[in-house]
Write a structure and sequence with these properties.
Layout: H1 18-31, E1 34-35, H2 36-46, H3 55-67, E2 71-76, E3 84-89, H4 91-121
Antiparallel strand pairs: 1-3, 2-3
Helix pairs in contact: 1-2, 1-4, 2-3
Length: about 130
């Protein structure tokens, strides 16, 4: 089963594209630094279980985002278990996230207009000849 909606994916609509995964990572890490597993769980919770990202995809994406300057990592020491590599958003990452969020706000306004049309034209319409 694919994770990023590639050409070999049978059910493309259930998996986010690479940039969407990056957006979700920035969104959850912007609140607080997290380790890879924490990011996976936060995205799963944020998306209400719609996006479950496998660890291989997650760590590849995190490394790519570090190279792009969107994230930076540091080691958090632990007395009770293994040390954890934590990820936090950089200044460029915050700027990138803000731009994405602004685009989503514009699309939200457009979607509200489209959904209003639906409400006016089709809501409660049970005809089968539509």
């Amino acid at each position: 089963m694919c994770e990023t909606g590639g050409h070999n994916c049978k059910n493309k609509l259930n998996y986010p594209e690479r940039r969407w995964i990056q957006f979700l990572i920035l969104r959850v890490v912007c609140q607080e630094p997290l380790h890879g597993y924490g990011i996976v769980k936060a995205i799963e919770e944020l998306s209400e279980g719609r996006h479950i990202i496998k660890s291989g995809t997650m760590y590849t994406t995190l490394r790519r985002m570090e190279k792009e300057g969107l994230l930076e990592s540091f080691w958090e020491r632990s007395d009770t278990g293994p040390d954890k590599r934590m990820y936090k958003v950089t200044r460029d990452g915050r700027k990138h996230l803000k731009e994405w969020l602004e685009m989503l706000m514009e699309r939200k306004r457009m979607m509200e207009k489209i959904l209003l049309f639906y409400e006016q034209e089709f809501r409660g319409d049970n005809r089968e000849d539509i």
